[in-house]
Amino acid sequence: MTDSEKKLKLTVNGKEVESAPGEMLIAAAEKAGVLIPRFCYHPRLEPVGVCRMCLVEVKGPRGFTLQPACYISVSDGMEVVTDSEKAKKAQDGVLEFLLANHPLDCPVCDKGGECPLQDQTLTFGPSESRFVEEKRHFEKPIAISKLVYLDRERCIQCDRCTRFAADIAGEALIDFEGRGGALHITTFPDKPFASYFSGNTAQICPVGALTTTPYRFKARPWDLEQVESTCVSCAVGCQMVVQSSENEIVRYLGIDSEAVNQSWLCDKGRFGFESVSSAERIPSPYFNEPSGMVETGWSQALDAIAKALKSAEPESVALIGGSHMANEDIYAWVKLTKGVIGTDSIDAQLDDGLDPKIVALSDRATIQEATQAKLLILMAGDLREELPILYLRIRSAAKKAGLKILEISLSETSLSNEAEVSLRYFPGYAEELVNGLFGAEVDPQFFAGDLQAARALVSSVDPASVVVVGARENLADSSLDPERAIAKLLDSLVGSKFLSGLRRGNVNGAIDMGMVPGLVPGRGQLQDGNEALKAKWKTLPRKVGRNSREILESALRGEIKVLFLVGADLISDFSDSALAEKALGNIPMVVGIDSLSNRTTSYCSVVLPATAFAERHGSTTNIEGRVSTLGKKLVGFSLSRPEWMIAVELAAYMGEDLGFESLHDIWGEIQEVSQLHRGLSIAALGAPGAKEGIVVPLSASKVQISNRRVLDPIATPGITSVGVSGPPSSSAAIPGEGDPVLSESTYSRQRSKLLELLAHDDRAKAGPEADNFALVVSKRLYDHGVEVMSAKHLSELVVPSKGRVSPKGWERIGLNGSGLTRLQGNGASVELELVVDPSLLDGVVKVEFDGALGEVSKLFGVENSTSRVKMEKV
Amino acid sequence: MSRFTKEMETRAFELLALYPEKRSATIPLCHLAQEQNGYLTEESMVQIADLVGTTPAEVLGAASFYDMLHTEPVGKYVVGVCTNIACLLQGGEELLGHAEEKLGIATGATTDDGMFTLEDMECIAHCDHAPALQVNYRFFGPLTNDGFDALVDDLSAGKLESEVPPHGTLSRVQRKHPIAVPLEEIVRHRRDSDAKEGERLAAKAATEAKEGSN
Ligand code: SF4
Ligand code: SF4
Ligand code: FES
Ligand code: FES
What we know:
heterodimer, A: Ubiquitin-like (UB roll), Alpha-Beta Plaits, Rossmann fold, seven-stranded mixed beta sheet, B: 214 residues, alpha+beta, Glutaredoxin, 3 domains, four-stranded mixed beta sheet, 4 strands, binds iron/sulfur cluster, binds FE2/S2 (inorganic) cluster
């Protein structure tokens, strides 16, 4: 028996309660249905015991004494009383004390109506204050960042926000200043609370001291309606509630999902809701005529597209995008393109990901497995920029549970400090480095870091307990090198698992549904055939199609007649925007299906308005393969339609029948054709025990679905106060084991060598050269892409791209003081500010990708070798 | 010039070397910065944060807790009048009031010429000389109003320079010979006592198990 399984017993208010060593009394009591009041205690933060709200009587050698329940752990035979006169008097006193300086401006406070201070004062507190002195005063709310306001008068000094910032986010940009009656939260002068995770502090603040700019004075809690959903701003798939007022989304709050986001959301996810009501929403279908935009009806638009499709060869039809859609939308479009039209040239990735075979055909890890691995190998760039909450989970595991990390990257990342060993490589040499990890000789001029230590680390653990996180770190180099490196890692470490680092919304679901060349729904390969598919689909593509880059390249040769762009803003988002621009001009019919106007919609022949997030039901799949549901809260904007419906209707205009009329129909068919999803019924997805989503494939025998989250109104004020009232009830937990709604999975696959499925990397390679620099272009969280730019408050956070060079590179360009530099490559020239980064190898320049500005992406053409740029100081 | 000078930087590194955890050097480094600049400038807090591996906000948070660390400019002489119980009974409040008048500033403020900052203090452990005060942490008392005026005049005239050095130089963290922290010894000691505690617990568990099975 391990320690954590050991049970011990205590009595709370005369009732016997089971607990485990190490558990805090407040949590043990809560499980037994006894809610002890609290402010500073938060189940996801380390206890501090500063607010004293949780004082209860605990029996000790000197009889019963008052002790903070959040700060003592349970012990066997402990006797606790939470509702005695003495305990009540203490709670009453603490509240009177906390209110002594509280401004009581509830009528103008955003928290009013969902405020733990209000609620607990009502339940536990005094009805009158004896405090007649002047209260302390501060300037009313001050902006501590562009997203968060601080009202110091309302603050009760619970230390939640500061603990979150320091311990969870790892950026102590806020702290207490002063002491005693003068204690208040502050930022350092000129250093605002610019954290990717700042919104979480407002979510957990138990009073209205921290509020977020986009939500301020937008609604009253009792007017809010809410639905549970999954964030699709990136592929972590954080669980959240969507709250609306008068058919407008006003707020997202993170749900405490043990498996995924454990309460937190990143700011991009949290504040992205503003794009749903953006002025850029497309109201109705339109044609782009030479004379300008001509609005039209759905029937004319669909008819025109159907006609164009009729006269086009299957191979000349292609689709790019779709990674933001629900699984059902994706399946409908895959069926339309692969199963009706017969083209395999569809790709949900924008040349910024990995070969989908790596994702589809490797053994996959969950986030939990990654954080509990014996060794986590990161080959995924900077996770904080791409999958923010995954970064938090990994960081916490490293800090608190000693997770061992081996990092292989082109430059320092946010997790480098947590890594046991960091290895760096020169662009194009990832595969060599990984070979070196398994014993091959390496040429030291292409690498940095302690390779010996890395070898020792890898050989010290059981390969089957290793998890590899893989993604594309460098957009300016072909994906082949990192792909081969990742494949080599997974092949060599027999039994290791892969956690996808692909970041676009539902891109992992798109791969599972076959919205990539060469794959069919259910992580199967096109060439392997699929009997179930043949029964449901009219046709199957004859040969493996093109990926998005190849589609655009063949468009240059005039081989593409109809291109669907589904939520794909190529001009902003495609890594090679020059290619995208040229290609789009060379396709007779470009169909744009999007919810927002963007730089690419003006290149489309016809544009169809799609519904946005929270305007449709459906399901989505995250990096783990976890299928969870999307909530619908709003009526679709204007004439917009969900994408699956557009596919069904377009088929009808072509004289075809996709065979479904509802999301339920589609999910039913997915279960029939995809072994991967077999057993995962609609009923299972909707089961209360499955709120965190269910990872596919279901394991062969019994499926464990996790317990219903208990929504804690004091940990996350605002979720249960809407709709559900009262303290969290433990009876809401529904055991998942053997849940009758889940049937057995039949998914099985022979694990082949991944490396054998990939092409050889026989491009000419070169190391550092005297007259140029190898270019590394990486993504960052806030770029000029439409997703960020259409959300008002996020758009204000975007700053111009920066570049980084090694100290030697800095000297070589002759920079001093100012880093303004001109980069020239691929016939384009860009000016940007460089800074010194000692973690970069000499001869490398690293630049942040900049979305719609598109300038940086003109610098590279990646077909043949690593992109090179010349640099000179301006 | 508010970052550490070369010489001060050397001392900063000596201080850092004293602690197994760099963060532990935060307060000593604050004193060092104060010794150099008279108070903690923003730049020095930023530099200290870099040196100890934390954020400027955390350095400010720690520094602002302590009355002896100033994050605003202070005068050459920081006069702290005690208003705690013993001094209060002996006229400490009145002395503070007089001091405000004499210096022409409110408590907490600094004279225009940058000579004096006036503070009120809790007990400074000079109760037997109540009403007492400190100037740059040097004790004076008991003081009458006239005595206070004389003290201020002497300070202004530079007569007490040898007794009361300018604010900040009190730094107690300068060591000619850094003490060697016997790290190994501490670790060994901890290990031994942990082992003993482990044995004790194991023995206790064994007896309990025995009793339980009976
Ligand atoms: S601002 Fe809110 S979360 Fe932070 S200490 Fe004050 S009350 Fe607590
Ligand atoms: S990490 Fe990703 S899924 Fe989670 S809140 Fe941020 S954008 Fe949304
Ligand atoms: S002291 Fe226990 S909740 Fe604050
Ligand atoms: S009370 Fe003033 S020195 Fe003690």
